[in-house]
Amino acid sequence: xxxxxxxxxxxxxxxxxxxxxxxxxxxxxxxxxxxxxxxxxxxxxxxxxxxxxxxxxxxxxxxxxxxxxxxxxxxxxxxxxxxxxxxxxxxxxxxxxxxxxxxxxxxxxxxxxxxxxxxxxxxxxxxxxxxxxxxxxxxxxxxxxxxxxxxxxxxxxxxxxxxxxxxxxxxxxxxxxxxxxxxxxxxxxxxxxxxxxxxxxxxxxxxxxxxxxxxxxxxxxxxxxxxxxxxxxxxxxxxxxxxxxxxxxxxxxxxxxxxxxxxxxxxxxxxxxxxxxxxxxxxxxxxxxxxxxxxxxxxxxxxxxxxxxxxxxxxxxxxxxxxxxxxxxxxxxxxxxxxxxxxxxxxxxxxxxxxxxxxxxxxxxxxxxxxxxxxxxxxxxxxxxxxxxxxxxxxxxxxxxxxxxxxxxxxxxxxxxxxxxxxxxxxxxxxxxxxxxxxxxxxxxxxxxxxxxxxxxxxxxxxxxxxxxxxxxxxxxxxxxxxxxxxxxxxxxxxxxxxxxxxxxxxxxxxxxxxxxxxxxxxxxxxxxxxxxxxxxxxxxxxxxxxxxxxxxxxxxxxxxxxxxxxxxxxxxxxxxxxxxxxxxxxxxxxxxxxxxxxxxxxxxxxxxxxxxxxxxxxxxxxxxxxxxxxxxxxxxxxxxxxxxxxxxxxxxxxxxxxxxxxxxxxxxxxxxxxxxxxxxxxxxxxxxxxxxxxxx
Length: 697
Fold this sequence. Notes:
Layout: H1 3-34, H2 54-64, E1 71-78, H3 85-101, E2 111-112, E3 118-125, H4 132-145, E4 153-157, H5 159-171, H6 174-193, H7 200-224, H8 230-259, H9 265-292, H10 300-331, H11 353-363, H12 365-380, H13 401-412, E5 421-426, H14 430-438, E6 443-452, E7 455-462, H15 469-481, E8 486-488, H16 490-524, H17 528-551, H18 565-593, H19 598-625, H20 633-665
Antiparallel strand pairs: 1-3, 1-4, 2-3, 5-7, 5-8, 6-7
Helix pairs in contact: 1-7, 1-10, 4-5, 6-8, 6-19, 7-8, 7-10, 8-9, 8-10, 8-19, 9-10, 9-16, 9-18, 11-19, 11-20, 12-17, 12-20, 16-17, 16-18, 17-18, 17-20, 18-19, 18-20, 19-20
């Protein structure tokens, strides 16, 4: 045996072990940081608000006023038959106990309802400041003191109580979300691979990638101040498992194929990485580029999601292209047991589902293309039925105490503002601002609050119910009339969220399309093929939103739609949906470069990648569908739209429409690249359809 063979054999053994050792060292390094990510997660209003909005400036200035940020609550006492004298005494005693236990901004005064059934006490405290844990402790202490007695219902609502209830939901997501996602991915991998061992490898690697992403996200927060919210960290986990498993499916499928023609696992893995590596790199690049475009958003929550989502995708890519190959090579062929791909063997020939789909698309491509376009267009019309903007009290799938309090107030105080509007005015113009606010149509009363650092706080009570059309008009009038002042509060925040999301869509959507298109052009050496893929995923997005419009209200009973749903679902569906187009088109181009006739190249690409794409689509859709089990309406809506969009893309658009367009255009699909001009060097016969065990039959 020559020295060259000895060197090669040594490299085959050393490289996988070296990669494994590097990963052990890397995970040991990030371990102290990954465990701290939850400590820097914040879900205050300012972490979600638009960076330049009035309501954001109000929240920031309130932090600088004496005592810092104010936690606003409303303690609501209610009895259906009318409050008794004993009830009022109980309420006064409990409010007195709250005032004794915690420093309040002012002595609370009870406001009775006209029908005598309800008594509300606005309670405000600067004790917690910006400390979310202290805020939650304050709200929970108030709830412990203000308890229902002898038929007297007591509920604690208001902005602070809403924030606490939302914080508890987001803090509870981490464990259940991770476990549920891992369980769903594990189940699908078992069904796909039909092996008692193989499914464990990509799942374990995805878990390690998620742990790595947590450490990197913490580093970004500490080094660059990147915001971390419950929503963004949840999406990061979903992306790691969903996209990472997709990359694993593609790599393992190609590795299995190479093992049948290459004897040594190391050499087979090298060939597999060379074959599918460019597609995986381009795929992750499009997702990362799409997510990175979120930095152009003005909304803090969406802008912060960009870096965290990018971190998740890149960590999944690195893990699946280094750690996964190393483990698979070390385990050898036996990891595929009982369906081991033997060297020199050929897979069992079967008529696959995707062979039938490809044949139907190939016979009448224009008919299939037109029919699919009409179907997607019809589904997109359902978006016209989407409910209006989601109100604060409708954000939970189950009713927490804060929502129950708001509903009680809405019934007992019809047409009365039970949620204060906060105005921050320059101190030297505070008196004029107070008078101007009092004269504004729709304002019931105005009270003066704290002053400091050149600013004075005014609390405005509207004559209309919170988040009603009347209150919205009042907020807009106040902003128009109070020049130099800022108007904020819970209702103003919701208004700013809706307005800024509309602005962000106009900025981010074109950026995403341009970046994704440029990456596709660079990969496919064509303009026509990338345009087809981008048009396809845009159509999928519209259809998925349309299906959401058909079910959110009538089926799920949702009263509103999250203002950020359109933008976030677009970014994820375009970036992730293009993945499958890359897998298909890259294989089609590979076949064309071998000299295969264009129609045959398209059908071969579909038959060889269809099973992998279907498996990957099911896994990705299932991981996003996990969000539908979460107790926040905005997460349920996002999970539904993205899951439905991925399934549409996988089984309709990618299979039928993109293949039909490629068949109809033939060589023109590669225009203006060399493949569109040069005839094939030769023509290969269309092979018998083959379905690998990784695919869907």
